[in-house]
Amino acid sequence: MRQITPLTDRDGMSAVTFLDDFPPHRKAVAWLLLAHGAGAPMTSPFMTEMAVLLAARGIGVSRFEFSYMAQRRTTGSRGPPPRAERLTSEFIATVAAFDDRPAQRDIPLLIGGKSMGGRVATLVADTLFARGAIIGALALGYPFHPPKKPQALRTAHLEALQAPLLIIQGERDPFGTRAEVAGYALSPRISMTWAKDGNHDLAPRRSSDTTHMENLVTAAAAITSFACRLTSRKMPS
Fold first, then answer.
1. CATH code, domain with 142
2. Element (H, E) at 49
């Protein structure tokens, strides 16, 4: 069951809208607060498919949109997104709003996102982890560098990261291939899962011996294992 829930903050002002994907279990292994990528909304096919696959595995998912993307729905404006660093306070505020919801209390919280959303999650992960607000973070297709600009790395904060982080990356992702990532100095708290022959959306080429769905299933299984390891819980049967 999916439900769009507009929330208000403690002062009664509009804060954020969540799209909830409830798992078919009484209690989730963990709950994932999932942000979208730079150009596609929380209802994109990729985001929807991942939410469905995770919910089926006992991971609750709540998707949300940054304000610039939510504004696109009402104005139709297609301006460029803000820099990731300018979205960190919005992500932290969204976690605070999420924490006010009684249905998710006492369920361990993960944060993450697709591409840019995942990058923002990594930028706030240590702050939230130190507060005890989250148990870890994940990124679906981390933008290690802009395409064709491998020298413009976005890895400085990842070198000393303390929060557990799972990155699921396509082997031929133009934002960071498997061969490129092998040479980066990353924190030992970071785990990598590779989508076979995958691009930035984890999709393989047509000639590959795997499929996009198989890679998405691999991603969902990796996230579930990550959550179970961090919570010491077993996947609900």
1. 3.40.50.1820
2. helix 45-55
- Structurally, the chain folds into a number of domains equal to 1
Please check whether residue 104 lies inside any domain of the structure. Answer: yes
Render the burial of 95-112: b for 16+ CB within 10 Å, e for the rest: bebbeeeeebeeebbbbb
The per-residue pLDDT for range 176-187, each reduced to its tens digit, is: 999 999 999 999
Question: What pLDDT, in 10s, does the model give residues 69-105?
Answer: 988 877 877 778 899 999 999 999 999 988 887 777 7
Q: What is d(CA 144, CA 44) in angstroms, rounded to the nearest whole number?
A: 22
| Residue 158 near residue 121, CB atoms below 8 Å | no
Whether residue 57 contacts residue 32, with contact meaning beta carbons closer than 8 Å, is answered with no
Domain region containing 54: 2-231
What does 142-210 look like in DSSP terms, one character per residue?
--SS-TT-TTS---GGGTT--S-EEEEEETT-TTS-HHHHTTS---TTEEEEEETT--TTSPPPTTSSS
In a domain, 236, yes or no: no
pTM for the whole structure: 0.91
C-alpha 45, offset from chain centre: 15
Does residue 97 sit within a domain?
yes
Report yes or no on 216 lying in a domain: yes
8 Å CB contact between 29 and 236: yes
